[in-house]
Amino acid sequence: MKTMKNYLVLAVIACLLTGCTVDNPSVPVQPESEEQDDPSERGGAETFDVNVECWKYLNKKWVKDKVSLKFEVSDTKNFEVGLKQMQGTGGNYVQVDIPEKVKYNKRDYKVTSILPRAFKKSKELDGIFIPASVRKIGVEAFLDCYSMTSVRFEFGAYLHTIGADAFGYCTALQGIDIPGSVEVVQGFKGCAGLKEVTINGSREIGEEAFENCINLETLILNDGTRYIRSGAFRYCGMTTVDIPSSVWEINIWAFDCCYDLTKAIIHGSPTIFSGAFPNNTELIYK
Fold it and tell me: 3-class SS at 3?
């Protein structure tokens, strides 16, 4: 071993002096030491089922019942889980209150996320209550839940992320009040039944966030929003819109094809890209 080390030292010195390179397949290059993933320790994340109370539509009336929710352990150190799936509806419409905490292995686990596609195409889901503990709603979490009429967020929500198409094409959804804790609002494309949207100071309204919400009549933008991205409200039905002074940019096509939008009241002096509004929209600066 000592002889080998001496050989390597001499070889490196020789290369530095002559400008040559060492390419000796008989001497393997040793990578920098780093912690390797042990396949024997990998395995899938733990999942478990919990029966929670719900309202279920039985015999033409709403009654208290239970539904099964599957959770996945996401953080074993902080005892956190994500909601993975709903099951056991029996084909009946249900209104579900997601619990803030669930019991697993005699410990309380906090529900901090709704995982991607957790409720996708759940045709029985009529309404959902999301507790303040949930910080992230995954991609397509409620995509195509065409029977869902309401989404309620607990006061004081810590929700930070709404994934792409999270609520896409929930055509029965009529209104949404988005917590100000959400950084980028997106994921409501094609919610044709949506009539009223309130955004409580989220920094950004993402691309195509509410595109094709053709019946959206009332848009309330509270102070705090900085950017309205391309196509955010394309093909929506508002007649007027009030832009708060906090807005810095309104991107191209933000309100494109909003044919009934006759008036936009602009507070402050945001950068408005060409084509952001239809040609017939009057911009009134205040």
Answer: helix
Report how far apart, in Å, the C-alpha atoms of 121 and of each of 38, 168, 196 are: 37, 10, 23
Question: Which pLDDT band, with edges at 50, 70 and 90, does 9 fall under?
Answer: very low
C-alpha 241, offset from chain centre: 25
Helix/strand/coil (H, E, C) string of 168-222?
A: CCCCCCCEEEECCCCCEECCCCCCCCCCEEEECCCCEECCCCCCCCCCCCEEEEC
| pLDDT per residue as tens digits for the range 42-60 | 357 899 999 999 999 999 9
Q: Does the CA dihedral 251-284-256-146 come out positive or negative?
A: positive
Q: Which DSSP category does 116 fall into?
A: T
DSSP SS3 for 71: strand
Q: How far is the C-alpha of 285 from the C-alpha of 272, rounded, in Å?
A: 12
Q: How far apart are CA 137 and CA 155, in angstroms?
A: 17
Measured over the CA atoms of residue 50, residue 141, residue 181 and residue 148, the dihedral's sign is: negative
Which helix (H) or strand (E) covers residue 57, if one does?
strand 47-58
Task: Report whether 13 contacts 7 (CB < 8 A).
Answer: no
With beta carbons less than 8 A apart as the criterion, state whether 216 and 197 touch.
yes
Burial of 247 (0-12, 13-18, 19+ CB in 10 A): buried
Residue 13 has pLDDT above 60, yes or no: no
pLDDT over 90 at 77, yes or no: yes
Who's near 229: CB < 8 A, 6+ residues apart?
Answer: 204, 205, 206, 207, 209, 251, 254
Q: What is the pLDDT of residues 246-275, one digit of tens each?
A: 999 999 999 999 999 999 999 999 999 999
Inter-residue long-range contacts of 260-263, CB under 8 Å, 24+ positions, other chains counted: 261/236, 263/239
